[in-house]
Amino acid sequence: MPIRYVLLLAVLLAGGLPPVQAGCPDTLDFHLRPLAGETPVHLCEAYAGQVVLIVNTASKCAYTPQYEGLEKLYAEYKDRGLAVLGFPSNDFGNQEPGDEAAIQGFCRMTYGVQFPMFEKTHAAERNADPLYRLLGERAGEYPRWNFHKYLLDRDGRLIGSFASQVGPEDPRLRRAIEEAL
Prior knowledge:
The protein has 181 residues and is of the alpha+beta class.
C-alpha cells in the first residue's frame, strides 16, 4: 500500500482531519487605507461575514446626493450586518479632483457620512485598481460612472451590480440587501 494511503488511514483512525477553516474571500482580500488615513485596513478582517456594498463615489457629480441615501442605508442596516464602503474616484468626468482630506471633509460636513470611506481609487475598466478589476470581471461590467454599486453577500460572493442610476432607495437594491441580511 502506498505511503500516502497509510498516512491518510492513520489520520482518519486518529480522529480524522481537522475542520477546514474558511479563508478570506478574494473579494475582500485587500489592504486599503481609510480615506486620509495612513494605516491600511485588511477588508477581510474588518468586513468578513457582513453584507458589503462597495460604491465608487465623487463629490462633484449629479449623483453626489446619493451620499445621503447611502448613509441612511448604513444607519438602518449596519446593526444587522451591512457595511457600506465608499471609494472616491476621479475616473469619470474629473468629478473627484480634491485630495483625500478635502473629500473626507466634504462627505462629513455636507452629507454626514459615517460609513467607511477608503483611499482614492481607479474604478474605470481602463486602469481599474485590483479591487475594481476583480469586481468588474466577476460582474461582467465595470462602473461606467460614479456611484456604481457592487453588493457582496456574507461569504464575499458578488450577488449584485447596480448602475449609477440605481439609487440607495431603489427597491431593487434594498430588496437585494434585505435578502442578503
